[in-house]
Structure formats: C-alpha cells, structure tokens
Design a protein that fits this description.
It is a single chain. The protein is globular and about 45 Å long. The protein is built from one helix and eight strands; from the N terminus they run αββββββββ. The chain has one domain. A hairpin with a 5-residue loop joins strand 7 and strand 8. The chain has a five-stranded antiparallel beta sheet. The protein is mainly beta and 137 residues long. Bound molecules: zinc ion. The site of zinc ion has 8 residues, from loops. Zinc ion (ZN) binds next to loops.
Length: 137
C-alpha cells in the first residue's frame, strides 16, 4: 500500500521569506515597525494597528509549550507512521504562538510550560518545517 504524501503548506509572496529562512535553518517572525509588536503567522499587514510597515526579525527559537495533544489514533493517513506524535502550541520568547510538533522525546514527557527550542525538519525541497524539541538541562 502506498502511503499518501503529507500536505505541504502553500507558499505566497508574504510567506516566502519565512520558508526561505526555514530552509536555511533560521526561524524568523514578523515585527511591526509602527506598533513594535511581533506577528505570527506571516501577514501582509499588522493585525494590531493595520500598518503595512512590517519587517522580518530572527526569533531566538526558544519558547515553552503552551498546550499540546498526543495523536494516538485517527491521524490523517499520511501521518500514520508518525503515531503517536505531539501537536503543540509553542509560545516563543517573543510572545507569539505557533502550532507545531514537539519531537525528540517521548510524547508522555511533554508538558505545559516545558522549555523547548526549534529544530528543522525537511519535508520537501521547498518546505522545511520548524519543530521543537525539549531544552536539555
Ligand atoms: Zn502594528
């Protein structure tokens, strides 16, 4: 039986810099030049003050698990081989939150407020996904 391929995020003009940086192993997020707030996911204008003066800045790549779930069944078929896996919302040090996966530990070890840092997992030639692993003490 052939395993279906995983869905690939769409790339457009305002997300292209994000994916290009991820390919190079860098996590970048947007920051509004007018209200100085960090923005994630990538947008064409600031969701807080509607300014279009947005710049890309490097994230520290560190954060904590805000919330998570462990997928043990009913995963989309392309993800069956990954089960069990962790889908999490990680709050970066900059304050923005990202939906992601926590990898590099047993799913049962993941907990809220757990310190994590970014790693990169190549999905296709174009798309590399930022994921997170526990910070080792
Ligand atoms: Zn703004």
């Amino acid at each position: 039986m052939n395993t279906p391929e995983k869905p690939v995020p769409p790339v457009n003009s305002w997300t292209a810099p994000y994916w290009e940086a991820a390919r190079k192993g860098k996590l970048i997020i947007q920051k509004c030049r007018d209200c100085q707030k960090y923005i994630f996911y990538p947008r064409m204008s600031c969701p807080f003050c509607f300014s279009d003066r947005i710049e890309w800045v490097q994230s520290s790549g560190r954060g904590t698990v805000y919330t998570y779930t462990i997928v043990r069944n009913n995963a989309p078929s392309a993800f069956l081989a990954d089960m069990p896996y962790v889908v999490a919302v990680v709050r970066l040090e900059e304050g923005v939150q990202m939906m992601t996966n926590v990898v590099g530990c047993a799913p049962e070890e993941v907990h809220c407020d757990m310190p994590v840092e970014v790693i990169f997992e190549k999905l296709t030639e174009e798309i590399t996904l930022p994921k997170f692993k526990p910070v080792k003490k």
